[in-house]
Amino acid sequence: MEALGMIETKGLVGAIEAADAMVKTANVVLTGKEYIGAGYVTVTVRGDVGAVKAA
Fold first, then answer.
1. Nearest C-alpha neighbor of 5 from the set 17, 20, 22, 21
2. Shortest CA distance to 26 belongs to which of 47, 1, 5, 3?
3. How many CB atoms lie within 10 A of CB 24?
4. To 5 degrees, how large is the angle CA 17–CA 43–CA 32?
5. Is the pTM for the entire model greater than 0.90?
6. What is the pLDDT of residue 14?
7. In order of start, what are the domains of the chain with their CATH numbers?
8. Tell me: the pLDDT tens digits for 4-31?
């Protein structure tokens, strides 16, 4: 069973740092990023439920 994880940050630098930490910490795959507006960026990852929770 796979899960989808999302994190929203204010600014691209924070999103890159968060995505880097998630991918290095757990066995997850970066699936994309979305620019929401007003400087917010959402990063999505997918993987096993336990891995997404750990990330």
1. 22
2. 47
3. 9
4. 115
5. no
6. 97
7. 2-54 (3.30.70.1710)
8. 999 999 999 999 999 999 999 999 999 9
